[in-house]
Amino acid sequence: MANVSLIPTSGANMNQAPRQSTNTAMASALKPLPSMAAEIPCKRWPGSMLSMALAVAFTTLSGLPAEAQETFDTSGTPPVILVAPETVRELLNTHFEMPALPLPDDTARATFLRRAQRDIGELLATEGYFTPNISWRPAATDETPVLEIMPGQRTLVSTVSIEFRGAITSGTPEQQALIERLRAGWRLPAGKPFRSPDWEEAKSALLARVSRRDYAAARIEESRAEVDPDSASAKLSLVLDSGPAFRFGELAISGLERYDEKLVTRHTPFRAGDPYRQDKLLEFQARLQSLPHLNSVIVSIEPDPARHEAVPVQVMLREAKARHLSFGAGYSSNNGARGEMTYRDYNLLDHAWNLGSGLRLEQNRQRLFATIDTLPDAIGYRLSWGARIEKTDIQGLETTNQALSVARSRTQGQIETRLGINWQREQRKPADGVQESIQALVPDWHWIRRTVNNPLYPRRGDVTEVRIGGASQKLLSDQDFLRTQLRYQVWWPIGARDTLSLRGEAGFTAAPSRFGIPQEYLFRAGGSQSVRGYAHQSLGVQEGSAMVGGRTLASGSLEYTHWFSRDWGTALFLDSGGAADTWRDLRLSTGYGAGARWRSPVGPLALDLAWGQETKALRLHFSLAVAF
C-alpha cells in the first residue's frame, strides 16, 4: 500500500539542517549572545605537582569531567527556557527534550538549534503546522537563553478525493448507497485541521467500515496528502480496493480432544454460504467464550481473495478442566455472612452436559441444589433439570422448601426465553401466624431482553424482564393462581463518566387468597435490590408477628452515579415501593440516601446509607462476594 503522508509543494523545508559553517550559523541565529563558556587559563593553575595531583584526584572521585563541574546550576532556573503558545506547549513539553545543563559554547548552541529545528519541525507538522518560526534569544531579566516557537498558520484540509475499486463498484443500488454513506462518513472532511494522527485514523476507520461486511480483503491501494505550506492547505486523495465479496465456508475446528464438534457447531450464528459479516464472527467467538468447557477461543478467517466464495472459518480452541471444586465466602446486608462450596462437571456422562451443584449457608438462608444443562439443539434450545432443598428465616417467616424443575431455554442475541415446569412443596411457619404445608405445580414462562453496553457495569441501554406463571387445583396444586411480573431498568450516560438509572417493577398474583401459594409466587419488598432504607423483605403483609408475601407489588428507583475515576464513584438515590395483599391496601414506602461504588475485581460493590421515611431510621446496605 503506497502511503505518502506529507508532500510539501512549496516553501522551505523546516526539517532540513543548516548548511552554513558553525560560526556563520551562530552569527545569524544567535544574536546577541553572551559568552557562556568558563575559561580556565593554564597559567593560573598551581605549579606544584602535588596541587595538580589533588585536582585530578578530585575530578576522578566526583565521577564528572572538570568542565561539567563548572556548568551545574543550583539556582533552580532551567538552562534554556521554552516559550510557545498554549496550543502546542504540551506537545513540545512531552516530546521535545530540552538540555539538562547550560550550553557551554557556540558549537553546543548551534548543535542544539539544529536539533530543535529538525525535531520541533517534525512534531509541529504532525499537528498541521508546516511553517513554524524557531528563534533563539536571551531573556530580558536573568540572561537565561530562550527558545521561542511560533507555530505559524495551521494547515486545513482543502479537498478530499475518495475513489473505490473492486466488487463494491458493481453498480447495484445497495452498493451505490454504501459508497455514498462511506464518503459522507469520512472523518477528515474539507475545512478540518490537517493532523497526521487524524489522517491515519480516518483511513483506518474507512477501511474498517468496508471490511466488516462482505469485503474482508479490502485494502487502501494508494493514499496521498499534498501539503502546501504557503497556502496552509492540504489536498487528500486515496484509492480503496474492496476486493471480491466474501461468503462463509465450512468451520475448520482445532483443539478439541474431550468433546465432540457439536459443542462448537451448535453455537454458530451463521451458515455456510451466508455473506461474510465481521459481527457474526465476533458473536460466534463470544458464544464460545461463554462456555465453561473452553479456556480460550480464537475465531477468524484468512481473507484470501481466491477463496472468497467459501472462505473457511478457523476456530482455534483450548479446553478447560472438566471438573471444578471451589469454595467461597461473602457478606450482604440482606442475608448476612455466607459460605459456600460448589462442584461442577462440564462433561457429565461424556455428553458435554453441565452439572452444577453446591451448598450455600447464609445467616437466614441455607440451600442445597443441583442442576444439569444439556447442549443446545440445532435451533439453539437447551434442556435443564434442577432440584433444591432450601430453608429460610426472614422477617419472622420460616419456610422449608423442596423443589424439582425442568425447563427449555434459548438465548438469541439480546433476548433470552425460558419455559419450564416447577413443582415444589413448602412448609411455612409465620411467627404467631397460620402454619401451612403447600404444594404447587407451576408452568412458568420467563422472557428477558438486554440491550446494555456492559452486562456487569452498564452505562447505556436497558433491561426488560417479563415473567408469567400459574397453577390449578386440578393439577397437583393447593390453590388456583396466575402470577405476572414486569421489571424494567434503563441507564443514560451523563457527561464523560456519570450515569443516571431508572428502575420500575410491578407484580400481581391473581388468586382467591394468598393462602395455599408458595412464597416464590407472592411478593415482598425492601433491601439492597429493592427499597433501600428498609430491611430485606420487610415490606409485605403482616401476619401474626411475621411479614409474609402479598399478591401485589410496585416499586421504583432513581439513581445518579458520579465516577471520580475508572473504579471509584458515589451515588445519590431515591427508592419507593411496597407489597400488599390487594391494590387497595398497597402503601409505598420511601427511602433515599447516598453510597459509594467500586468496580472490584470480583464484581460491583455498593455501600449505601439510606434513610427510611417510614421507619425514621438509617440503614446500611452492603454486598460483596469473594471467591477463593
Describe this protein's structure.
- The chain folds into 4 domains: 2-38 and 52-150, no CATH class; 156-241, membrane protein fhac (Ubiquitin-like (UB roll), Roll), CATH 3.10.20; 248-319, membrane protein fhac (Ubiquitin-like (UB roll)), CATH 3.10.20.310; 331-627, membrane protein fhac: a member of the omp85/tpsb transporter family (Porin).
- Helix content is 16%, strand content 44%.
- The protein contains 9 helices and 28 strands.
- It has helices spanning 22-29, 49-62, 66-69, 86-95, 106-126, 173-184, 196-211, 262-265, 278-289; strands spanning 2-8, 81-83, 133-138, 145-150, 156-165, 219-228, 233-241, 248-254, 294-301, 311-319, 323-332, 336-348, 353-362, 365-373, 382-394, 397-412, 415-430, 436-450, 461-471, 481-494, 498-510, 541-543, 546-548, 552-563, 568-580, 589-600, 603-612, 617-627.
- The strands form 5 sheets. It has a 16-stranded antiparallel β-barrel. Strands 1-6-7-5 form a 4-stranded mixed beta sheet, with helices on one face. Strands 2-4-3 form a 3-stranded mixed beta sheet, with helices on one face.
- The chain is globular.
- The model is unreliable at 1-74 (pLDDT under 50).
- Our count of helices gives 9
Instruction: Tell me the CATH architecture of the largest domain.
Output: Beta Barrel
Query: pLDDT below 50 for ≥5 consecutive residues: which ranges?
Result: 1-74
The CATH homologous superfamily of the largest domain corresponds to membrane protein fhac: a member of the omp85/tpsb transporter family
Radius of gyration: 37 Å
Structural class: alpha+beta
Gross morphology: globular
Which fold name corresponds to the CATH topology of the largest domain? Answer: Porin
Q: Please provide the count of β strands.
A: 28
